[in-house]
Amino acid sequence: MKRIGVTGHRNIPPEAYAHVRAGIQTALRHHRGALEAFSSLAIGADQIFADLALSCGAELTVVIPSGDYEDGFSAPGELASFRQLRGRATREVRLAFPHSTDEAYYAAGAYIADHCDRLLAVWDGGPSRGLGGTADIVHYARGLGKPVTVIWREGVERP
Fold it and tell me: According to CATH, what is the number of the domain 2-151?
């Protein structure tokens, strides 16, 4: 079974959204046979990836960074989307952090990188905005020698 993980930005500008979806779909279609998808189901890239992976027939493994992770979903509909995708997961890995901290996010991203064969990074190429951000996880995965596929629409800046 192939294992693909995701790391990526929470805020994807509207002008990049279709490109990001298409890039993830293309990456998922290139894999034949059984597929396991790893995601923390954060708003943005993580949820887009999880939804598309499930629609391709992948088994979803959700990596929950902390005990209070759900408290971070504050905008209308965010928590419902998280719970809907989480309910469709085959497996759930819950890390031992009691609170959502940068360290918990880094640990979740590192767990995903450690357990996947390829990492998809919905990443504008910029630095992380805190420990555990997309750039940190891309650098971590590359340090492991994992193939990383970067998906972003050139010329678009995230908010």
Answer: 3.40.50.450
Q: How many CB atoms lie within 10 A of CB 152?
A: 22
Which run of H or of E encompasses 93?
A: strand 91-97
- Binning the chain into helix, strand and coil, the percentages to the nearest 5 are 40, 25, 35
One-letter amino acid for residue 112 of the chain: I
Q: What is the pLDDT of residues 106-147, one digit of tens each?
A: 999 999 999 999 999 999 999 999 899 999 999 999 999 999
Model confidence at 31, pLDDT cuts 50, 70, 90, reads confident
Question: Is the Cβ–Cβ distance between 4 and 28 less than 8 Å?
Answer: yes
Q: Torsion angle, CA of 139/29/31/145, rounded to 10 degrees?
A: -10
> Contact at 8 Å (CB) between 112 and 39?
yes
- Asked if the model's pLDDT at residue 54 lies above 90, the reply is yes
CA distance 112 to 5: 6
Of 119, 129, 149, residue with least CA distance to 11: 129
